[in-house]
Amino acid sequence: MREKMAFIGAGSMAESILTGILNSGFLPKEQIYVTNKSDKERLTFLKKQYAVQNIDNKEKAVDGANIIVIAVKPYDLEAAVASIRDHLTADQLLISVAAGVSTDTISQLIGKAMPVIRAMPNTSSAAGQSATAVTRGEFATDEHLQTAMDLFNTIGTATEVDEADMHTVTAISGSGPAYVYYLVEAMESAAVEAGLDQDTAHNLITQTIVGAGEMLKTSGLNPNKLRENITSPGGTTQAGLEMLSSHNFQEAVVTCVERARERSIELGKKL
Hints:
With 271 residues, the protein is an alpha/beta fold. It folds into 2 domains: 5-161, 3-Layer(aba) Sandwich (Rossmann fold); 176-268, Orthogonal Bundle (ProC C-terminal domain-like fold). Helix content is 54%, strand content 13%. The protein contains 12 helices and 8 strands. The protein has helices spanning 12-24, 40-50, 58-62, 77-84, 103-110, 142-153, 166-174, 176-193, 198-218, 223-230, 236-246, 249-269; strands at residues 5-8, 32-35, 53-54, 67-70, 93-96, 116-120, 130-136, 156-160. The chain has an 8-stranded mixed beta sheet, with helices on both faces. α8 packs across α9. It starts with a strand and ends with a helix.
């Protein structure tokens, strides 16, 4: 199932997945087709940047495609499916990365027994470091699921989850990189205000984030223990953490995730 892939949608998420696929060699650029609603300039950019096939005829884009990736915003999903519905067949696999929209809803929009996989990658896929959650719809077999897992493992790690958990996944790993970038923005601003030049601050903080992530991944220790290992009584880390606590840092993060999850649910209900 790796002969032809069609992307319906050409935004940042599609580009991130596309970049990861090409970097991993999962599929050659000649066999990847990209189309969108109306932005021809965007299609031209992707063709020039990645040498993929851009096409404004959605019928031709999906015709003969083994995998069709719907990479649009939730509120554009219905129109996107409608534009290709008459050209979809039961032997194709449709993968949706639209936040909040269930596989049942997608199947209803398709109107036929077609395998559907719902996935929630993040933009770190462009660097081959996405944390992607995958769940299957009613007509998707183990083989379809494995195809999706193989695809998303090329751009990071893929984990199968129950569909009921996908709203939480969206709030954590889907939106999570933005939370980290927001933290980095604040750290960089503080560093520059304290006298470091921008490039030095950026490089030090970037490596700090990368190193902390690697420790979480490889040390076998939970984040609480890793934090305690750094925090000496009366030291600088403790002083900083006390300030975060005084500003309800953990509570802010919890409510951030809760609100993102609620929004995912709201977006799904709109369809």
